[in-house]
Design a protein that fits this description.
- The complex is a heterodimer of chains A (297) and B (329).
- Helices cover 62% and strands 1% of the residues of chain A.
- Chain A folds into 2 domains: 32 residues, no CATH class; 193 residues, Cytochrome Bc1 Complex, Chain C, CATH 1.20.810.
- Chain A has 297 residues and is mostly helical.
- In chain A, helix 6 packs across helix 7 and helix 8 packs antiparallel against helix 11.
- With 329 residues, chain B is mainly alpha-helical.
- Helix content of chain B is 60%, strand content 1%.
- In chain B, helix 6 packs antiparallel against helix 12 and helix 10 packs across helix 12.
- The interface between A and B is large, with 105 and 105 residues.
């Protein structure tokens, strides 16, 4: 274009402009290339470092720092016994139990959005959940089966820990915490059983809490209960149900235990359990076998 | 015999029984899986015991080994990738399970209509089964408390230092047998009975027997003092006049001490014989304090009482061996 209009005095200006444009294009391209190169190594960016605090993952030191500097990963040591990583020793049941707890918390919170713990609403809410709420039926199914699966996983974890003798010194205390976690898991599942307010839950809880009547010292039908002045209206069963029969107060109590009290308590014990796993030296093995002849007397 | 297989199918396919059916496969599998590794370790231990030279240099594991391999590996990625895989696998199992089986929902709760059978959730069916054999405060309160405390006591009464952190059977025969009998032989079996056998009225229905809600069960059990004809007649002569009317209760109460006492002594002697049976177990026994021995004996005696009561009730049709106004055993 510039060549077709000579002598107009504009050539110099146009050339100059053209040059600047070219210069800018070159600069832009260069910058673009540079940034594309940077994108190929996202771990060098400010954004990445702001998130993870350390750079490239393929350096051994950074691998360790990644585990160490991450809130969610720091429950792990930076390095683990190479043989403990094989599935055959640990069966992974402890981790699976915890994962199921996370699934249960997540689905449980979603379920709480659709549920009222009242005699009028509870059963209808479940029907509503199953018929009108998108994926509501699936949500309830996952929550129910995850609860069952968690009990199975916890029991198999117990079996594995016993068979490997992992409760022996220095892990005695953590074994006791684990037993409490098993109890809490069952109680969590049991308190959830009443919440749909259907016949199944109602009679299961009736059978279950009727046993509380017979608690020694604390139940009105238990040994020494009547002598201590206990009746159906002031014994431990009354405290559990918030009444002398399984009714609206029992539903509310089961709900609070299930959604708040027990999850908070089990979380604390989870924390202690994981903390002690680390403090007691990580996974118990597989450690080198010890011989009878090496036993100290 | 042509049984009611449809009944069995109804029980097995009940959504809430799926976990129990799964346990039938899972528990034996994992027991086998653990004991298989125990056997491998036991073979290694035997080899090392006979060859002290090898014992000094051997890495002492049955896992693959190379001297140049590092003892530890990085958590990232070697552990985390397994955790990710496990999480994905569990999620897939849950999704398939949730898509194929719906969580049960019965009629609205109604105190006027009793569910028959009225059953606890499967993980408490073992306890519910115990209610058939013991007073409620024993089955529902005392036994669970002893189970929990007993489990917690294990690390403090098992003084055997061997088998810490590896699978072994030969170094821990007694501990492993005790646990497997308690966990699988008692707890799991009671749960299975509660799930598959107990029908309407919590009555005993063999598998493939129709659950008939109108069935009438005749009480065929007798108390031990009844079998021995304890009626308190001769005891009445020894009692003061004010207690004459209670002579039967006194006689029964005193009579019951005999079988229970004999059981405690025989069981204690039986367990003592087991834990001092071989030179190795005697060595372990020698390390135990008196308190440890007593606690272990009591826990074992109480644990063994559960299957013994079960067989006495169901095979010998004996209801209680010790009747008192306060409790029955």
């Amino acid at each position: 274009m510039a060549e077709e209009n000579p002598g107009k005095g504009k050539t110099g200006v146009a050339d100059e402009a053209e040059g600047k444009v070219q210069q800018f294009k070159g600069w832009l391209e260069e910058k673009f290339q540079e940034q594309v190169e940077e994108l190929k190594r996202p771990e060098e960016t400010q954004l990445y470092k702001a998130f993870f605090r350390v750079g490239r993952i393929d350096e051994p030191r950074n691998r360790a720092l990644h585990t160490l500097n991450n809130l969610f990963l720091h429950i792990h040591p930076t390095k683990v016994n190479r043989d403990a990583v094989s599935y055959s020793y640990t069966w992974g049941m402890g981790g699976i139990s915890f994962y199921l707890f996370i699934v249960l918390t997540f689905t449980g919170i979603l379920l709480m959005f659709y549920y009222h713990p009242t005699k009028v609403q509870a059963y209808r809410d479940i029907l509503d959940l199953e018929t009108s709420v998108p994926f509501g039926l699936q949500l309830r199914n996952i929550h129910r089966w995850a609860a069952h699966l968690m009990i199975i996983a916890v029991c198999l974890h117990l079996l594995r820990v016993f068979l490997t003798g992992s409760y022996k010194r220095p892990r005695e205390f953590n074994w006791c915490v684990g037993v409490l976690l098993l109890v809490f898991t069952m109680l969590l599942s049991f308190t959830g059983y009443l919440l749909p307010d259907d016949q199944l839950g109602f009679w299961a809880v009736t059978v279950g809490t009727n046993m509380a009547r017979a608690t020694p010292l604390l139940g009105h039908e238990g040994p020494f209960g009547p002598q201590l002045g206990l009746t159906a209206y002031n014994d431990v069963r009354f405290a559990l149900l918030g009444g002398s029969i399984v009714d609206s107060a029992a539903l509310l109590r089961a709900y609070i235990w299930h959604c708040i009290a027990l999850p908070v308590m089990i979380s604390v014990f989870f924390g202690v359990h994981f903390w002690r796993v680390r403090k007691d030296g990580g996974a118990s093995g597989p450690s080198p076998v010890m011989l009878e002849s090496e036993m100290k007397d | 015999m042509l049984g009611d297989w449809h009944q069995l199918w109804l029980i097995v396919s009940n959504p809430d029984n799926v976990p129990v059916v799964a346990l039938i496969g899972l528990v034996p599998f994992f027991t086998w899986f653990g004991l298989r590794q125990a056997r491998a370790n036991d073979r290694l231990i035997e080899k090392l015991e006979t060859d002290p030279e090898l014992a000094r240099t051997h890495h002492r594991k049955t896992q693959p080994y190379h001297p140049s391999w590092a003892k530890e590996v990085h958590t990232w990625p070697y552990l985390l990738r397994i955790e990710l895989l496990a999480a994905i696998l569990v999620t897939v199992i849950l999704l398939v399970w949730a898509l194929s089986v719906n969580a049960p929902l019965e009629e609205p709760a109604n105190a006027a209509i009793t569910m028959n059978p009225a059953k606890a959730p499967w993980y408490f069916l073992g306890l519910q089964e115990l209610l058939e054999y013991f007073d409620p405060w024993i089955a529902g309160v005392a036994i669970p408390t002893f189970v929990i405390l007993g489990l917690m006591a294990i690390p403090f009464i098992d003084v055997n230092p061997l088998g810490n952190g590896y699978y072994t059977y030969k170094q821990r025969r007694f501990a492993i047998w005790t646990f497997l009998i308690g966990f699988e032989g008692i707890w799991l079996v009671l749960t299975m009975i509660g799930t598959f056998i107990r029908g309407p009225g919590f009555m005993w229905f063999w598998p493939t027997q129709t659950w008939d809600p109108d069935r009438i069960e005749f009480l065929t059990t007798r108390n031990l003092d009844d079998i021995f004809g304890v009626n308190g007649k001769w005891l009445a002569h020894l009692l003061p006049a004010s207690q004459q009317a209670n002579a039967v209760l006194w006689a029964r109460g005193l009579f019951g001490i005999i079988p229970v006492g004999i059981y405690f002594l025989v069981a204690a002697w039986f367990f003592y014989k087991i834990i001092t049976a071989t030179p190795f177990t005697r060595k372990i026994f020698g390390r135990m304090s008196l308190l440890q021995v007593v606690v272990m004996e009591v826990l074992l005696i109480l644990m063994l009482a559960v299957p013994i009561t079960f067989f006495m009730r169901n095979l010998l049709r004996i209801k209680y061996v010790w009747e008192t106004p306060w409790f029955n055993l």
